[in-house]
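Hi U.,

Before I forget, here's the chain from the pilot set. I'm dumping it here mostly so it's searchable later in email.
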Amino acid sequence: MISRVLDVRAPAHRPFARLWPVLVLLLSVGVGIALVSQPMLAVVPLAALLSAVLLIDGRARLAVVVFGGLFVLQRPGGLDTPKLALLGAFVVAFAGAFLNVSKLRRTAAYQAAGPLLAASYAFAALGVFGLAVAYAGHGSLVEAVRDAVPYLLFATTPIFAIDAQATLSRTALVRVLIAAGTVTAIAFAVTWLQRRGIAYLPIARVGVATVFVPAALFSYAMSIVLQAAGRRPRWLLLAAVLLALLVATGTRTTLALLVAPLAIVAASRRHVATRSFRLALLAPIAVAMTLLFAVAVVQLTDADTDFLQQRVSLLRSTGDSASDASFNDRREQGGVAWAAFTSSPLFGVGPGYPFEWTPQGLSPRRDFVMDTPLTFPAKFGLVGLAVLLFVATRFWSFVRRLGDDGPPRTWYLALVGYLGVVVALC
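Structure:
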C-alpha cells in the first residue's frame, strides 16, 4: 500500500502543478532583492499587524496615544521616522476609536459627552481652516501642518476618551493616569534641571516635559484626599512627590497646580465645609512633605543650590523688567504676537507662521511657537477666538451636566481641579 501511495503521479488535467515550486522560488528571490534594495519594506508586515491590532483593541489604542506620544514626541528635531510612524499609528488608532464610538451612540457616556464632541468637531474644523489660511498667507505648508497637528490631536481627545471608557475598567484607567503622570513629572524634572544647568544627569530625556499631565494626576490625588474616605495618606504622598519634582526645577508656572485643591473645595456646595476643613488641616502637612521631597530631589541630583536660590528669589521680582529676563522675553513675544494679530485680525496669520523676536541677551529667534497666550489669536484671529469661546462653553456645559448628576464624586472634583489648573496656566 505504501509503495502505491509513493508511486502516485500528478493528474494529467493539472499541467501547472509542477510550476508552483518554480513560482514560489522566483517570488522568494524577488522579495529578497526588494528587501536588500529597500530595507523599509521589511516593516510592512509588522505595520499591517499593528494596524489590525489598533483597529480592534481599545487598550492598544490608548497605549499608543498616551505612551507613544510621551516617549516619541519628546525627541528633538523635526519630523523623523519615529514621529511619522507614530502619526500613522495615531491615524489608524483614531479610525478604530471612531468606529467603536459610533456604536455607542445610545450609551449614557456618549450622551454625557455630547458637548465635548461638539467642541471636538469645531476645533477640528478650525485646524483645517487654519491650514487653508496658512497656505494662502505665508505658504509654508509643511510648517503649517507641523504647527496644526497638536490642535487636531486635541480635537480627537473626546473620541479617545469615550473609546477608553468603553474599553477599560476604571481601575485600569486610574493606573494609566498614575503611570503617565509620574513619568511626565520625572521627564519634566530631568529636562528642566539640565536645560537650566541646575544639575547634570546621566540621561538627557525621559519623555515629553509638560506640566499638564502631572497636573491631571495631582488633581485626581487631591480630590481623593479632600473627598474620598480612606486611602488619603498614599494619595497625599503621591501629590507631594509630583509637586516636589516640578517645583525642584525652579519653574514658577508649576505653582499653578496649587489652584487644583482650591477649585476642588469650591466645586460644589455640598460638603464644602468638610473639604475646606480637610484642606486647612492637610495643607501644612502637604507643604512640609513637598519641601522635604524637593530637597531630596536636589540632593540626589547634586543640583546647584545657589542657582535654585536665584530662581526662588525671582518670585519676589516677577514682572520686574529690571531683573526678570523671563518676563521681558514673554513681553517681547507677546508684542510680536499682537503685531501679527493686528495685521490679520479676522482670520489670523495661520499656523506655521514664522514669528521673529530677540530674547534678552540672546541672538534673534525665528519659530512658529512662542511662550505667550497671544499666539493663538495671532494664528487664528477673531474666528479662532470665537471657536475657542464655543469650546470653553461646551466644556463648561459638560462639567455642569456631570455636577448635576447627584453628589460630587471623586472624578468630578478631579476634573474641576484640573480645569482650574489649565485656566491658570493659560
